[in-house]
Design goal:
mainly beta, globular, homodimer, 0% helix, 63 residues
């Protein structure tokens, strides 16, 4: 399966905020995440970087 | 493998601009894409949406 984990980076710290994310949709004030079970999460953040082979997406808070 | 294909959406059309993308890094004026062979591509675009299980990332030109 090719879902990714989404981490929120704050300074040097990274916190796992959602596992097994399938879809990401940037919107005006942040990101809509949905995992493989259909659970949805909104985070007021933007994508910082992602490496899909590592199943890893890093987001940072919108300033 | 969990790489994705990146499509540029213009109006109703979608054009495949890079296959087998591993990493995406948003930067000031667009997106830096890198595929699994290390080839890099810059596109003046932003992420519109992505569905990782479908290996599909859609971007749109920055206005």
């Amino acid at each position: 399966m090719c879902e990714s984990n989404v981490y929120l980076k704050e300074g040097e710290n990274e916190t796992l905020i959602m596992e097994s994310v399938d879809s990401i949709e940037p919107c005006e004030n942040g990101l809509k995440l949905m995992d493989i079970l259909g659970r949805q999460l909104f985070v007021p953040a933007r994508i910082k970087d992602m490496t899909l082979l590592n199943h890893r997406i890093v987001v940072e808070k919108l300033s």
